[in-house]
Amino acid sequence: MLTETTALSRYVITKRRMLGETQEDFAENCGLSVELISLIERGQANPRMDTLAKIAAYLNVSISEMLQDS
In this structure, are residues 63 and 52 in contact, taking their beta carbons and an 8 Å threshold? Predict the structure, then answer.
């Protein structure tokens, strides 16, 4: 079973690539820093709820959907 951090990492990478966005584009569209997106994608961040909410809002999904073990 994937950890929530790993599941989030995979989810963000997959969705960003599906959108054809760079980390810079994705970060800007979410209202976050490139450094934070990079840490999330590498599984090295434990993002706060407001960060998760920004990513979820941009992707038009729920936070729980982003954290599901797919």
Answer: yes
End-to-end, the C-alpha distance of the chain in Å comes to 9
What is the domain range of residue 57? 4-67
CATH of the domain at 31: 1.10.260.40
Instruction: Answer whether 0.85 is exceeded by the pTM.
Output: yes
**Under 8 Å CB-to-CB from 70, ≥6 apart: which residues?**
7, 10, 11
Task: Provide the H-helix boundaries in the chain.
Answer: 4-19, 23-30, 34-41, 49-59, 63-67
The reported pLDDT for the residue numbered 19 is 98
Listed residue (41, 11, 49, 7) closest to 24, CA to CA: 41
- Write out pLDDT tens, residues 42-58: 999 989 999 999 999 99
